[in-house]
Amino acid sequence: MTSSKPILQITHLSKSFGGIKALDDVQLTLHRGEVLALMGENGAGKSTLMKILMGLEKADAGEILFEGEPLKNRDVKDTLKKGISMIHQELLVVPELSVADNIFLGRETTRWLPGWINNEDIYQKTETLLGTLGVAIDPRMKMKYLSVAEMQMVEIAKAISNNARIIIMDEPTSALSDKEVASLFRMIKDLKTQGVAIIYISHKMEEIAQIADTITVLRDGQYIATKPAAELDRNALITLMVGRQIDLLFPVAIGKQEEVLLSVRHLTQPGKFSDVSFDLHAGEVLGLAGLMGAGRTEVARAIFGLDPLAGGEVFVKGLPVTIRSPQDAIRYGIGYVSEDRKALGCIPGMSVQHTLTLASLKHYAQWGFIEARSEEGAAELMVSELRIKTASLQQGVMQLIGGNQQKVVIGKVLLARPDIIILDEPTRGIDIGAKHEIYKLIRQLTERGIAVLMISSELPEITGLCDRVLVLSQGRQTALLDRSEATQEKIMAHAVHQQR
Amino acid sequence: MKQTLTTLYRQTGSSYRKRVQGMGTFGILLAFVVICLALALSTPRFMTVSNLTIIVTQVSINALLAFGVTFVIITGGIDLSLGSMVAVTGVVAALFAHPDTYPLIVPLMMALGAGFLMGGFNGLVITRSKVPPFIVTLGTMTIGRGLALILSKGRPVSNLSDTFNFIGGGQVFGVPFPIIILIVVFVLCSLLLRKTIWGRYMYAVGGNEQAARASGIPIAKIKMLVYILSGLLAALAGIVLTSRITTGQPNAGQGFELDAIAAAIIGGTSTSGGSGTMTGTLIGALLIGVISNGLDLLNVTSYYQQVVMGVIIIGAVVLDGLNRKK
Amino acid sequence: MNRLTALTLTFLTTLTLVSCNQNTDSAEGDKPVIGVTMLSMQNEFIVNVSDEIDKKAQEAGVELITVDAERSALKQIEQVESFIAQGVDAIIMNPCEVEASSPAVAKAQAAGIPIINVNSETATKPSAFVGSDDVESARIAMKYIAERLGGKGNVIMIHGYMGQAAQIKREQGAREVLKNYPDLKLIASQTGEWDRAKAMSLMENWIQSYGGQINAVFAHNDEMGMGAVNALTAAGMKDKVVVVSVDAIPDALQAVQKGTLDATVYQNAQQQGSQAIETALKILNKQPYEVQVLIPFQLVTKKNVAQFVK
C-alpha cells in the first residue's frame, strides 16, 4: 500500500431522506493503486454513498477531498471529467452502436463539418486503448454481439479513456463466468499498477478475498470499520456486516427420506443437455452444480415444462408423466422459482397479494369468482410466514427490494402447494441476511417432506446446504456426490471435466 | 434504525397504493368533468336530461366495442376487426329479423354466434400461429367486410320487425334500451375483470407473458377468451346499431375499431398491456361522445370538429400521464 | 423452411390465377372488351349502375372486366393503367374524385382508348359523360321543401363527405334555391359522411339544440335522410318536420310509401348504366354519339312512388 496522500478522502458524510438517515457520519479513504471493497447488506448505504460521490445526490454534511481538493456542486458529467467513473451493475450500453462509438459516446471527434464524425480517428484510438488493456475486441463490432464480460471490458476501457483515476465497480461479476471473472481480475491488477484506485462493491466473499486490499464495512448507514483484507476472514466479515454472529449460515440438514418424489431418466434436449438421470427424495436438497452454460437451468426449465424435451422420461411419485406446460407441472405438484425473477417471476403493476396468489388462484375461487377474503388470507399467511417486509399487500411487487421480491416469488410457488420445488439461483443478488432466511426456509420445507432441487453458482451454498450434489458439465452429468464427499474442489473438478 | 427503515417503506408503500388505485382514472375523469362544465357553460342545452340521455345512447355502441377491446389490450393484443364484425353481425341479425319470420331470439343468437365465430377465429390464429394480433385482425377486418357484402349482396338489409327495432329504439320506464344494455354489460365486464380468476389472468398475460406462463396460467385459453369476448361484444354492438338504424348495413362500422381503441386508451388502458379498467374505458367512451355531441350543439363545422377532437384526445392522455408521474 | 413453403404457395397461387385468367380471355375470342372501374361496390346506387352495365353488356355480347376502386382515386388510376396494359377496347369509369381521378382519363386518351365517365365527372374531359347533374338533384329537393313550407321556415342540411363532387354540387344546388327564398333559413349544416348512423346521431343532437324550430331537413343522400327520419320519429317530431333526400334507394322508396320520408330524388341508375354501355358501343362501332348524356332526375313523393317501386 502506498503511504502517499490519499486520492480520495471522505469524512463525516451524512445524508437523510425525509428524516431517515441513509448515511450517518460515514468515512472512507482511498489511495492510488488500491482496491477497496465496500461491503454491507442491502440498505447499508453503499449506493447512496456512491451516488453522492458521482454527483447524483448532494450530501447534507461532511466533506469529500479528491486529490486534496474539496469536491463540490457537480453533476455526473463533471465527475467523469474529473476522473471518477462508475461501472454499473446493469451495463449502460447502446447495443446498436459499435464498440468505438460506445466508448466515445458524447466525446466523438469530428472533421470537415460540425457533427461529422471522424470514424477512423475513434476506431484508431479505441484499438490502441483496447490494446493497452490487453483486450481483443474489434472496435467496429456492434455492442450487441459482445458477451456481458466483453461489454464490461468496454465500459472499463471507456472509463480509462476518460482518464479515470477512480473506477467504481458495482457487482461487476454478477453475470460473469469463472473464466471471465479471472480475466476481469487480471485487468484490475493491471489498473492497480497504473495507479488507478478501485472501489469494488460485491456480495461475494470469495472474490473480495481474492482481489481487495482493504475492506470498508457499512451497516444501516453507519461506518463500521476499515481493515486490510488479509486480516478479515469470512466469519469476521459477516459479523461486521450483520452486526451479530451468524453461527450457522447453513441450517443443519435433517436428511432425506426414502420416498422418491421425482425421478428423471435420460433427459435430452439437443444442443443443451443429454442423458440426465437422477432421483429426488422427499425431504432432501439436491444441488445442481456446474459452470455457466452447463445446462443446469435448461434441465430445470424442461422438467417444469417451459421448454420441450426431445427425449427421456419423467416420473412423479413413481408414475410416468408427460409435462407439456408449466400448467401440467404445477398440476403434478412441481414448483419452479426462476433464476430471473424479474422476467419469469413478477408481473409489473401487480401487487404483492396478486403476485403471491397468481399460481394458486383457483383455490380461492368459486365459479371463477375470487373470494376476496380467502385470497387475502392466503397472501397474509405467506407474508408473515416468509417474513416478507412489505408496506401492505397492495404494495407493487416491483417496488420491493431484492430479497423481499424473491420471497414473494417463492411464496407464490409455495401457495400452489408443491411437493417438489426447483430453486434456480435462489439467492442471486440478495444480501447475506436475506440469504440466511432463505436457507432456513429451504430446510423448513424439507422438514415437511418437500423435495428441493437447487441450482446455484455459489459453491459454498451448494456444499453447505445440499444433501447430494449433481454436477453437470457441457450438458452431461459428470458426478452425483453425497454430502460427505462433496467438497468445493471436487465439484469444481467434475464441473470442468472435459468429455471426448 | 431498522424500525425507521420499515416505517419508510410503509410510507412509500401507501402512497404507491393511492397512486395505483385512485389516480389511474383520475386524470381522465378530471378532463371529462372539465369538458362537461365547459359545455354546460357554453350552451344551456347541454345539461338537460334528454340531451344526456341521448349522449349515453349514442355512446353505447362505441362503449360496447371499447369494453371488448379493453380485454384484448389488457392482454397485450389488439383487435382491428371490430368494425367489420359489427357489419357482419349486423347484417346477419337483419337477415333473420324480417317481420313475421323468426322469433326475436333467432336473429340475436345468429348474430352473437357470428361474433363468437369471428372472435374465435382471431383467437385461434393468434394463439396457434404466433402471428402478431395486429396483422391477424387486420386480415379479419378485410375478410369481415367482404363477408358482410357477400351476405347482404352489397345492399342494406331493411324491413326489420318492430320487436327487433325495439332493442335500439325502445324504452323501458323512459330509459332507452341501449342504455340498459350498456349498464348491464358494463357491470358484467367489470365483474369479470376485477373479480374472477380469468380477469386476473388477463392482467398477468399482458403484464408479463413469460411470468404468467411460468405461473401455470393457460395463456392460449385466456387469449382465446378475450378475442371471443371482443367478438361477442362486437355482435351486441352490431345488433344495437342495426336495430337503431333499422337496417343491416354491410358498410356499417367503418373506423369503429379506432374509436373503440381510442376510448380504451383515453380511459387509461396501457397499449403495452397489463393495465386498464372498465370504468376508465367507459369514461373514455363518454368523453368522446360528449365532445362530439357538444360540438354539434355548438354548431362547430365538421372541419374544426376533427381538429378539436384530436386535440382533446391528446390533451386527456397527456393530463393523465402527468397525473401518474406525480 | 416455413417461409420458403409460404413463398412457393403464394407463387403457385398467383400463377394459377394468372393462367386461369388467360384461359378465359383466349376462350372468349374477339368480343369487344370493356374495362369498368366503379367508385365503390359498397354503395347500393353504384351497385345498381354496375348491375345494369353487366346486364346490357351481356345482351350486347360484350366482355366486361369490372373492378372496384374502393373509393381510392389512386387505386382507380392503377386500375385504368392495367386496363390500358391489357389492351381493352374501351373504359367506363365511375370516378372517385373530380381532380384526383383525372390522370386516369388523360392516360386512357393518350393510349387512344375511349373512356366514358359514368355518374360523376372529372376535371379532364373524357370521351363522353353519362350521368346526371348533381346540382339539379339538390335544386329539385330544395324547391320541394320551399313549396311545402310555403317559402318560409328553418332548414337543416346534412352533407355527404366534405369535398366530394356529389357533396359540393348538392350543396351548391341547395344554396341556389335558398337564395331565391329569403325567408327560408339554413340554421345548421354538418357532415353525416353519407352514413345512416352518423346522420341519426347528428339529428338527435340537433333536436336537442333546436327542438321545435326545425321545419325541414335536406340530406345529401337517402341513407342520411333515413337516419334523420329515425331520429325524428324517436323524438315524436316526424309529423312536424319535412325530410327530403336524394338517390331513391329501395329503403327510401318504402319510407316514402309509408309517409315517413317526405320525398326523395330519383337518380336513374338503370339509365346511367345502360346509356354508358350504349355510348361505349357507339364509339367502338364508329357511330355518332353524344359527348354529354344527361339523365334527368325525378322527384318521388307519395303520389308517384308506386311507379318506382319494383
Can you put this structure into words, describing what you see?
The complex is a heterotrimer of chains A (500), B (326) and C (310). Chain A has a six-stranded mixed beta sheet, sandwiched between helices. Chain A has a six-stranded mixed beta sheet with strand order 16-19-20-13-21-22, sandwiched between helices. Chain A contains 17 helices and 22 strands. With 500 residues, chain A is of the alpha/beta class. A two-stranded antiparallel sheet of chain B has the order 1-2. Chain B has a single domain, classed as ABC transporter involved in vitamin B12 uptake, BtuC (Orthogonal Bundle). In chain B, helix 2 runs parallel beside helix 13, helix 2 runs antiparallel to helix 14 and helix 9 packs across helix 11. In chain B, a hairpin with a 2-residue loop joins strand 1 and strand 2. By secondary structure, chain B is mostly helical. By secondary structure, chain C is α/β, with parallel strands linked by helices. Chain C has two domains: 131 residues, Rossmann fold; 133 residues, Rossmann fold (3-Layer(aba) Sandwich), CATH 3.40.50.2300. In chain C, 49% of the residues lie in helices and 19% in strands. In chain C, helix 2 runs parallel beside helix 10. Classes of the chains: A alpha/beta (500), B mainly alpha (326), C alpha/beta (310). The interface between A and B is large, with 45 and 39 residues.
